[in-house]
Amino acid sequence: MKNVIISTGNLNYQYAVVDCIFAFDHAEERFLAGTDPHQAFNGVKQKLKDRCMELGGDAVINTNFEYRSAHAEGLFGAKQVIEIFAYGTVIQFSQT
Q: What is the pTM of this model?
């Protein structure tokens, strides 16, 4: 399995743009147990990597991450949900 780079900036390599992609993940826990935002962050990064590989890319550049936190009252008590959205540009390194 190849190592896909996820970068919030550009890379100093020659490359061809493949496509723009979007990914979403979330973490949900009972309110008092707390929610681990790293779970959602790692999940969304993995989804970006998976989609990049499906498209034959080597990296996702200029990636933007956004999040939303919500609290909900349910039948079994309160829950906290953290959602992370990410989008970026899939690139393929040029052969030199």
A: 0.84
CA distance 93 to 8: 17
Whether 79 and 70 have beta carbons less than 8 Å apart is answered as: no
What digits encode the pLDDT tens for the residues 23-75? 999 888 755 556 677 888 999 999 999 999 999 999 999 999 999 988 777 66
CATH number belonging to the domain at 5-93, selected among 3.30.110.70, 1.10.405.10, 3.40.50.12780, 3.40.50.2000? 3.30.110.70
Sheet holding 15-30, edge to edge: 5-6, 59-74, 77-93, 15-30
